[in-house]
C-alpha cells in the first residue's frame, strides 16, 4: 500500500457511490428494532481455523497497583484524585489470581486470550534507562507460560490506556512536540515495544500496539474526562492521534526490522468504531463522514495510504478558513512519515459495540470548535433499539455486519480480528447470573459476524468477547459489568463465578457457529424469538411457548452451569 492520488479519487468516487447506493437500498428503510429478513438466523459454521477469544486489560483486572517497583500510570492518578472513586488498586486481583482466570478460559474451551501489558509495570517511569521492574517482567512471563501450558495462545496489547504518569509529566504524554523533530514519545514507545518483543516474543505471536487510540485521543486529550484529563477539544485529540499513529508505525517497523524473521508473529492495532447509519437518505454522506472521522482517522493512514481521509482533510481545511486560522487543526504528515505509516498492519483489530443514527448537520457554527462539531453531523438512536447498562451502548446487531463490509471495501480486504464486542449489565442485587440479555447479544452479534464471513466474504479471522471477567469499567468503576464471569468486589479473595453467558459462549465455541441440525442451533432458534422481542410467532419456525424456552434453558444452560459451578466456585 502506498500513497497515490488514485487512492483518493477511488475513495471519493466509485467506492462511496457504490456504498451510498447499498446504504440507501438496504439500510435506510430498516433502522428499526426487528426486521424479519435482515435479522434472520443464519445457520452454518465459521471457517475451521476461526479464533474464539476473550479479552481483558491490565488496569481493569490486575490490581497490585504499587507492588515492587511498578510506577503509577495516568489511570492510577485519576482514580486516586478523590476518595469517592472506585480504583484499580485491587480490581480482580489478577496479578495474583491469573491461574484462576486461565482455568475459566480452559473451562470455556478458549484457545486464545487477549490481555494487555502495563507499561509502568515494566518501566516504572516509562523509560528503560531509568530502570526495569524485574517483578513485572516475571509476572508477564509467568502469565504467558501458564497460558501456553494450558494450550491458550496469548494475544498481547502493548498500550491499553495506562500511560506511565512520569511520561505525561516529563513530555506531555502523547501531546509531546507532535510536529517537530524533537519528539521523544515515538522512540520511548518503540523502546518499550522492543523490550516486550525481546522478552516475550518467543511465545507471543500476536501483538496489538494500541487499544482504541480514538478513546485516548478524544476522551484523554480532547474532552479530558479520561486520563490524563487534558482538556483541549479544539486540537488536543488531533495532536495525540498524530503521535499515536507515528508511535504505532515505529513499533511496527521495529518488529519488522529486528524480530519478524526470528519470531514470525503479527503486529496490528485495535481501532474502535460505532457504525453510523443514515437517518434518512439525505444523511448518507453524513454517515460516511461520521465513520471516516471515527475509524478513518486512524485506519486510513495505517491501512490505506499513510494519510488522513480526504474528507477529514478537506473538512478541516474549510474549518481553518472559516475560523481565520493559517493552518488546519488537523496536523500534516511529512512525505517520509506517510511512507513509514502506510501498510503497518498485519491484521485489522476491531472493537465494536454499538451503532448510531447519523443526520447531516452541515455546517455547525464555529464558536468553540471541537472534534464533535468538526464532523458536521448529529447523532441519535432509533427509539426501538434496546439498551445495555452503559449509557452509550444500544444493541444493534446488524451494525457490525455493515461495519465489517465497510472495512473490507475501504481498506483492501484486510484480515479482521474482532478484538472486543460485548454488553454491560448494572451492578445490582441480586446479581444478574442468568444474563439472558448478554446471551442474546452474543448470539445476535456473532451471527451477524458469521453473515459477514460466509455471505459477504469478509475475512474475519477472530471474535473476542469483552470481557472474561467483570472488571474496572473506567469512569463507571464497578457499576457496569461486562463479564462472562461474575466477580464479587466485596470479597477479599475476588472469587469468580460463571454467568449463564459463559456456558452459552462455551457451546458457541464448541459448535464453531450455528451448524444446521445441531441441538445447539435448535436452542438458538427458539431463543431467537425471545431475543428479538418480537411477537411474530413464525420467526424461524418458532411454534412453542414460554415453557419450551425454559426447558431448553435448563438443558443448555442450567445443568452445565451447575457443573461449572462445582468445578470453579
Ligand atoms: C472499550 N464509550 O472502551 C475498551 O477497550 C475496554 O477497556 C472497555 O472496558 C470496553 O470497551 C467497554 O466499555 C470503551 O464511552 C469505553 O463510548 C468507552 C466507550 C467505548 C468503548
From TrEMBL:
Keywords assigned by UniProt, alphabetized: Glycoprotein, Glycosidase, Hydrolase, Membrane, Transmembrane, Transmembrane helix
Residue stretches spanning the membrane: 12-34
Domain of life: Eukaryota
Record's keyword annotation contains Transcription regulation: no
Keyword Hydrolase: yes
Organism: Branchiostoma lanceolatum
Lineage: Eukaryota, Metazoa, Chordata, Cephalochordata, Leptocardii
The enzyme's E.C. designation: 3.2.1.21
GO function term, MF aspect, one: hydrolase activity, hydrolyzing O-glycosyl compounds
Annotated Pfam families: Glyco_hydro_1 (PF00232)
Family the UniProt entry places it in: Belongs to the glycosyl hydrolase 1 family.
Protein name from the UniProt record: beta-glucosidase
Amino acid at each position: 500500500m502506498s500513497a497515490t492520488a488514485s487512492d483518493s479519487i477511488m475513495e471519493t468516487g466509485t467506492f462511496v457511490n457504490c456504498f451510498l447506493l447499498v446504504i440507501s437500498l438496504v439500510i435506510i428503510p430498516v433502522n428499526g428494532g426487528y426486521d424479519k429478513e435482515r435479522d434472520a438466523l443464519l445457520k452454518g459454521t465459521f471457517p475451521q481455523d476461526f479464533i474464539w477469544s476473550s479479552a481483558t486489560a491490565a488496569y481493569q483486572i490486575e490490581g497490585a497497583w504499587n507492588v515492587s517497583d511498578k510506577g503509577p500510570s495516568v489511570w492510577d492518578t485519576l482514580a486516586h484524585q478523590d476518595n469517592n472513586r472506585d480504583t484499580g488498586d485491587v480490581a480482580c486481583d489478577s496479578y495474583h489470581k491469573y491461574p484462576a482466570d486461565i482455568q475459566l478460559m480452559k473451562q470455556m474451551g478458549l484457545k486464545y486470550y487477549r490481555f494487555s501489558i502495563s507499561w509502568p509495570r515494566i518501566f516504572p517511569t516509562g523509560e528503560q534507562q531509568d530502570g526495569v521492574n524485574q517483578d513485572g517482567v516475571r509476572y508477564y512471563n509467568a502469565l504467558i507460560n501458564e497460558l501456553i501450558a494450558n494450550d491458550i495462545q496469548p494475544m498481547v496489547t502493548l498500550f491499553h490506556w495506562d500511560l506511565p504518569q512520569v511520561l505525561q509529566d516529563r513530555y506531555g504524554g502523547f501531546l509531546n512536540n507532535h510536529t517537530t523533530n524533537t519528539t521523544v514519545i515515538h522512540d520511548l514507545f518503540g523502546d518499550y515495544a522492543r523490550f516486550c518483543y525481546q522478552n516475550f516474543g518467543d511465545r507471543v505471536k500476536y501483538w496489538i500496539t494500541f487499544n482504541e487510540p480514538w478513546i485516548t485521543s478524544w476522551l484523554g486529550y480532547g474532552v479530558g474526562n479520561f486520563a490524563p484529563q487534558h482538556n483541549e477539544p479544539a486540537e488536543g485529540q488531533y495532536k495525540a492521534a498524530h503521535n499515536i499513529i507515528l508511535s504505532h508505525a515505529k513499533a511496527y517497523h521495529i518488529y519488522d526490522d529486528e524480530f519478524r524473521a526470528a519470531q514470525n508473529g503479527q503486529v496490528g492495532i485495535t481501532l474502535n468504531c460505532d457504525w453510523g447509519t443514515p437517518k434518512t437518505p439525505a444523511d448518507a454522506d453524513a454517515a460516511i463522514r461520521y465513520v471516516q472521522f471515527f475509524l478513518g482517522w486512524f485506519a486510513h493512514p495505517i491501512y490505506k495510504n499513510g494519510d488522513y481521509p480526504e474528507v477529514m482533510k478537506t473538512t478541516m481545511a474549510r474549518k481553518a478558513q472559516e475560523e481565520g486560522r493559517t493552518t488546519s487543526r488537523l496536523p500534516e504528515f511529512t512525505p517520509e512519515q506517510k511512507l513509514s505509516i502506510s501498510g503497518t498492519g498485519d491484521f485489522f483489530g476491531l472493537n465494536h459495540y454499538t451503532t448510531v443514527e447519523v443526520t447531516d448537520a452541515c455546517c455547525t457554527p464555529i464558536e468553540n470548535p471541537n472534534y464533535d462539531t468538526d464532523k458536521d453531523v448529529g447523532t441519535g438512536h432509533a427509539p426501538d433499539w434496546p439498551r445495555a447498562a452503559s449509557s452509550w451502548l444500544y444493541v444493534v446487531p446488524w451494525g457490525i455486519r455493515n461495519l465489517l463490509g465497510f472495512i473490507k471495501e475501504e481498506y483492501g480486504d484486510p484480515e479482521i480480528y474482532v478484538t472486543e464486542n460485548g454488553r454491560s449489565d448494572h451492578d445490582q442485587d441480586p446479581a444478574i447470573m442468568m444474563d439472558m440479555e448478554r446471551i442474546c447479544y452474543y448470539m445476535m452479534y456473532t451471527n451477524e459476524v458469521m453473515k459477514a464471513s460466509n455471505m459477504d466474504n469478509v475475512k474475519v479471522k477472530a471474535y473476542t468477547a469483552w470481557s472474561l471477567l467483570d472488571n474496572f469499567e473506567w469512569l463507571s468503576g464497578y457499576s457496569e459489568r461486562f463479564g462472562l464471569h461474575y466477580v464479587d468486589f466485596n470479597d477479599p479473595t475476588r472469587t469468580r463465578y460463571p454467568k449463564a453467558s459463559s456456558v452459552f459462549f462455551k457451546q458457541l465455541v464448541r459448535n464453531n457457529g450455528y451448524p444446521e441440525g445441531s441441538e445447539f442451533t435448535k436452542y438458538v432458534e427458539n431463543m431467537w424469538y425471545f431475543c428479538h422481542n418480537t411477537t411474530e410467532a413464525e420467526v424461524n419456525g418458532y411454534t412453542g411457548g414460554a415453557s419450551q424456552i425454559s426447558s431448553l434453558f435448563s438443558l443448555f444452560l442450567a445443568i452445565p452451569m451447575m457443573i461449572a459451578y462445582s468445578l470453579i466456585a
